[in-house]
Amino acid sequence: MIKPPSDSTDTWSVTAWRSRAKSVLTQRFSEPAAQLVAATGLTPNKVTIAGGFLSLGAGYLASRGHLTGAGVLVVASGALDLVDGTLARLTGKKTKFGAVLDSTIDRIGEAAVLFGLLALYSGLGNTSKVLLVFAAMVGSVLTSYIKARAEGVGLECNVGILTRGERVVIMALGLLFGQVPAALWTLALLSYVTAGQRLLQVKRAAGEEQ
To answer: Which of 102, 118, 162, 188 is the one with CA 20 to 30 A from 145?
Structure first.
């Protein structure tokens, strides 16, 4: 059971829960898995790229209507995304290029799955779902862009109800359980909420009134 951190003044916040969940995942999954991968000699960047190929595979399966298979690959890709950073830390191979590569592959992976769904619904002539996928895609890009742009001007921007981790989980569940439209609605709506939260955070961090 994941318990909220007791030393936080914001114990029940989304950020506090996310931090605790990340800690548990690192201790129980990422570190043991990273140690096994380290024994094979694979580098963190190779693990990152492997995760990217899994995401591309998920996108292809989604485009062909094999949604459960796509969900399995999304889960596998997400698992590798958890491992590569931990592997870099354990092996002392954390690099700036590795960080940029990881972020780039993350964006490509999300886009691949959404594009696969876009191709599927377009082929079926389902305009409403095509528009829904597009809305989710724009929201995903927007939240990531605001964070990257803020960090580019020296401001921290890690807030928001829906970060990449939650997006991966929602998409995976939607694919695995045949609830893709519900997952897309959730992604679209919460992504724009997150974008607003991040803009407000940047405004406060910059100390600007307008």
So the answer is: 118
